[in-house]
Amino acid sequence: MDHRSDIYSLGATFYELVTRQSPFDGDTPLAIMMKHINSPLTPPYMINPHVPADINRIICKMMAKDPGERYQNYDELISELEQAKLHRLAKEGRLPDSELFALGDAPTVHLGTQGAPRSYLTEGLVHVRLEDLPDPPAPSRMKIIALSFVGVLLIAAALYALLRPAQDEAGIRQPSPLARGVLALLGRLEPPHEPSAEQLAAEDAERVATTRARIELTVNKILDYQRTANRPGRLPTIKDLRRLGLATEEETRDGWGNDLIIISGGDGVVKSVGRDGIEGTGDDFIFTASGTPQQVPRALTPEEIEVRQ
User: Fold this and answer.
1) For the chain, what are the domain ranges?
2) What's the CATH superfamily of 3-132?
């Protein structure tokens, strides 16, 4: 958000001046906003063929999606607008012979004898007289209610995102910074509990042990499934085990609350995505479907936890 945002807004104003319509329209403010961000701009001349090519180019450049493609300063914009105006006036010979028109680096222009200069905008640029413009319709009551409702939803979504608690690496849910500030102002926030590295290491070791035990339990449940379903060569999914009542949701999650994964192919694999919750990283737990460990990460030491903190 800088002066190039204002140049964009000014370009939208110019767009409406020469086309008599907004550059983008929609049912809700959010829909219009998303069109400003994503939808290509219809060039003004396609709506009003009387818009000159240089004015069309200037407005499109002012409303470029990428700020780097817009005018980078007002001097550049004003200079091109003045050049477009000079070109238009010179083409139609609107200034008396005695008039000189010198603007910045633009050349001095001597124009024909057509009488006193007249209004630039009302002389053929858009062919719109002020009295031709209809009064804008008053917004309906339902539209006001709908826009108010959308506004409340957007505010609620923003507050939820700012106040939602986050989970730290040890799996402990902590209030968001904004929530902590609000609670502190209300005098309801107790001093934060900061567990020691030794406590966090002990918790991590417990989660590692829990994960290994639950994978081994799941291997046994796979054997139960194969006997129950009489399908010795087929590996079930975690959902199959839960659906048939062979395992609970808690029994098929690792120590960090992630669902275990059963992968068919070859001898089959039972795995956990580990403490980072991302599959394919070094802290994944991987066992064959027969229960043989292939990758079992160790618990973090207090020193490693201090480095992470």
Assistant:
1) 3-132, 141-168+176-185, 197-308
2) Transferase(Phosphotransferase) domain 1 (1.10.510.10)
What are 136-171's pLDDT values in tens digits?
A: 677 788 888 888 989 998 898 888 877 777 766 556
CA atoms of 309 and 306, how far apart (whole Å): 5
DSSP string, 248-271: -TGGGB-TTSPBPEEE-STT-EEE
In this structure, are residues 256 and 277 in contact, taking their beta carbons and an 8 Å threshold?
A: yes
Name the token pair of 69. 């493609």
197-308 fold: Glycoprotein, Type 4 Pilin (3.30.700)
Q: For residue 76, which of 56, 62, 90, 55 has the smallest C-alpha distance?
A: 62
- Residues 57-79: tens digit of each pLDDT: 999 999 999 999 999 999 999 99
Assess contact for 87 and 81: CB atoms under 8 A: no
pTM of the entire structure?
0.40
What tokens were used for 63?
Answer: 């409303």
Bridge-partner residues for 288, per DSSP?
Answer: 269
Q: Supply the pLDDT for residue 254.
A: 94
- Cα pseudo-dihedral 192, 198, 199, 204, rounded to 10: 120
* Residues in Cβ contact with 83 at an 8 Å cutoff, skipping those fewer than 6 apart: 54, 103, 106
Do the Cβ atoms of 111 and 92 come closer than 8 Å? no
Measured CA to CA, the distance from residue 148 to residue 141 in angstroms comes to 11
Q: What is the spatial distance between Cα 94 and Cα 81, in angstroms, rounded to a whole number? A: 17
Strand 261-263's sheet: what is its strand order?
261-263, 269-272, 285-288, 293-295
Instruction: Find the farthest-apart pair of alpha carbons in the chain and give their distance in angstroms, rounded.
Output: 105
Count the neighbouring beta carbons within 10 Å of the beta carbon of residue 167. 12
Q: Are the C-beta atoms of residues 77 and 71 closer than 8 Å to each other?
A: yes
Q: Tell me the average pLDDT across 117-125.
A: 43
Confidence of residue 182 (pLDDT cuts 50, 70, 90): confident
Backbone CA torsion sign across 64, 70, 74, 79: negative
